[in-house]
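Practice record 12: protein with adenosine-5'-diphosphate.
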Amino acid sequence: MQIEHEVQTALAEILDPESGRPITQTGQVQQAMRDKNWVQVTVGLTTWAAALTDEFRKRVNDALVGALPGAAIDVTIGPFERKPLPLGTTGVRCKTVIAVGAGKGGVGKSTIATCLALALKRAGCAVGLMDADVYGPSIPHLLGIGGHPYEVEGKIQPIEFDGMPVMSMGFLMPPNRAVIWRGPMLHMTVTKFLKDTNWGELDFLIVDLPPGTGDVVLTLSQTAPISGAVIVCTPQPVALLDAIKAVAMFEQVKIPVVGLVENMSTFICPDNGKRYDIFGSGGARKYAEEAGIPFAGEVPINIQLRQRGDDGKTSGNFDDPETAPFLDAIATNLTRQLAERAAAQPPKPSLPVLG
Ligand code: ADP
């Protein structure tokens, strides 16, 4: 259908979050109908940007309201397909790889990595979760999944959680065995996990890194183009010092830090509703502002969240109003940050448009 000039003009400034290009140039404005008092527009959005659906709809709506005063505006956000291209030389068909790291252990890195993957998936993205925390793989436990991945035609079939492919050393080792790695073995395993797993087609691959700074990040940065790192830390100054080291390490290997998460940022006592800042509060946000790092959100200390992790029911955090909004906000903030980065890049002429 011919899209009216007025509608085109109104939407020309709106960028597709994934590609950073105007939606009027990517074939995403799929349908527009108009009479004197009424405008109906359907705009396609890729599943990559699913976490931004509500704010994208609002942006389209506001642009039309501003340009066509007095008309009733009816905006529908529909599907729009853009297939992932293979990632570098890995062959993995994934649009964005996000590494989740922390300066030290115990700050909730694996919990946040798992929740980030779940939040993106629940929003509508195609997500894979790779547990590269080879020394202490906890993701199978956090999700309550097990099994032994098998190989089909040279590809490892990941274990799925609710349709989300998950790969972890935890599936391959008896739970009470410690893994002692030599450098080359570690390199081989992480590379194999990434390249030889049948991930399918992904919008996001979330990679849970081992704590601290080290070999796995180096291997990953050499194996696949990582779009960005999310660093998890707790608010107290001593913990922030470790987070700052992690930021420096990612900068050294040229992986941009796209989000800092402050976990265990405060505690609301369930008995009296009083707020206790056990590890302090706001330290990571302040540091992020000072260092010019995007702040991706905070998660309070929550007893049920810890309990659900222990019980293998991490996904239950999304049914709980005390935890879900914090976790969803991290996924939204991160996607928004990646969209801003896409908008700041020069346009990619080769971008496939399959609308
Ligand atoms: P890491 O990967 O940094 O070692 P984990 O994700 O394994 O950390 O978390 C360590 C422990 O802290 C787990 O028992 C987990 O359930 C708990 N935990 C993580 N985040 C929170 C939180 N916001 N509130 C309460 N407990 C948490």
